[in-house]
Write a structure and sequence with these properties.
mainly alpha; 12 helices
Length: about 200
């Protein structure tokens, strides 16, 4: 996908610079369930806090993050890893959903983005933002633009704004039109730039 996306993204002068500066696909190859747990952990936390909680969570489960290990873990142990009571409930809801349904790449291959969003948001604790992260990072759908993500919005403003006023989501969508059909790839470059600043 990256090779196909680069010629399109390089037509945008700002994005062309980001393509030169970053490799946005350097991350561990987490399983679908691990990635969903990470997105739940990341909800409403700064990058640094989320990373610390994620590391303690993985350490608690000896790196074996599966629906079974999450459901078997003690509440106190999960709380000591940094999960709130609410997030413990959410990762357990996700674990039960994974035991009952097929949320893998293969299982969702024939589902549209909207269908995937509907399926995931039926799980209590999975909202629009988390579902979009799943589409983008797990299913690797090529054209997801998660404007519900603060880092994405701030990144777009820093790169494309004039510094004086906030861009509206409509203005951001208009900027992102140039990245179609690879808005997911562009989003990863924006994150990479924002987090390196």
């Amino acid at each position: 996908m990256l090779a196909d996306a680069e010629p399109v993204l390089r037509q945008d002068p700002v994005m062309a610079e980001l393509v030169e500066r970053h490799d946005p696909y350097v991350e561990p190859s987490w399983s679908e369930f691990e990635r969903l747990c990470i997105s739940i952990i990341n909800q409403q936390l700064s990058t640094a806090s989320a990373t610390a909680v994620r590391e303690r969570f993985f350490e608690l489960l000896d790196g074996d993050v599966t629906p079974e290990t999450v459901l078997a873990a003690e509440d106190d142990a999960l709380r000591s890893a940094g999960l709130s009571r609410q997030k413990i409930e959410y990762v357990r809801n996700a674990a039960r959903a994974f035991q009952e349904g097929d949320y893998t790449r293969e299982g969702l291959a024939d589902h549209s983005n909207d269908d995937v969003m509907d399926l995931l948001t039926e799980i209590k604790g999975i909202g629009d933002w988390t579902a979009r992260m799943y589409l983008l990072f797990v299913l690797e759908r090529p054209d997801v633009l998660p404007l519900g993500d603060l880092a994405v919005r701030r990144g777009i403003e820093q790169l494309y704004g004039n510094g004086d006023e906030e861009l509206t989501r409509a203005e951001m969508r208009e900027i992102a039109e140039a990245w179609r059909p690879y808005r997911s790839v562009a989003t990863r470059y924006i994150w990479a730039e924002y987090e390196s600043a």
